[in-house]
Amino acid sequence: QVQLVESGGGLVQAGGSLRLSCAASGNIFSINVMSWYRQAPGKQRELVARITTGSTTNYADSVKGRFTISRDNAKNTVYLQMNSLKPEDTAVYYCNLKNGPLGDYWGQGTQVTVSS
Asked: First vs last Cα of the chain: how many Å apart?
């Protein structure tokens, strides 16, 4: 089985920074995609950023230039560095692992709250 454990959420003022981490353990396929999604109250879950095993990245337009996704393949860990945070970034952030042919996994979510 696969487990994803997230950390790093919290409360920050607008303009501040936070760094999220997500560590995957278990049967991890060698080629996979790790992503961060977020869901604000009353809204659908949306993709924030994704990164492949080869470090190809994609970002939502709303976070380009402010957020940076990275990964440590040796630790099966993905990070999301969030700078210049805005109140509209407030959401529960979820880690996702597309584990090759072995399935799709989600973390439990971590709350990020940005005060104005």
From this structure: 41
The structure tokens listed for 103 are 């399935």
Q: Which pLDDT tens digits describe the chain residue by residue (116 residues)?
A: 899 999 999 999 999 999 999 999 999 998 899 999 999 999 999 999 999 999 999 999 999 999 999 999 999 999 999 999 999 999 999 999 999 898 999 999 999 999 99
Q: Estimate to the nearest angstrom the gap between the alpha carbon of 29 and the chain centroid.
A: 19
The set of residues, in sequence order, having a beta carbon less than 8 Å from that of 91 and lying 6+ positions away, is: 38, 39, 40, 43, 112
Burial 30-67 (b: 16+ CB within 10 A, else e): eebbbbbbbeeeeeeeeebbbbeeeeeeebeeebeeeb
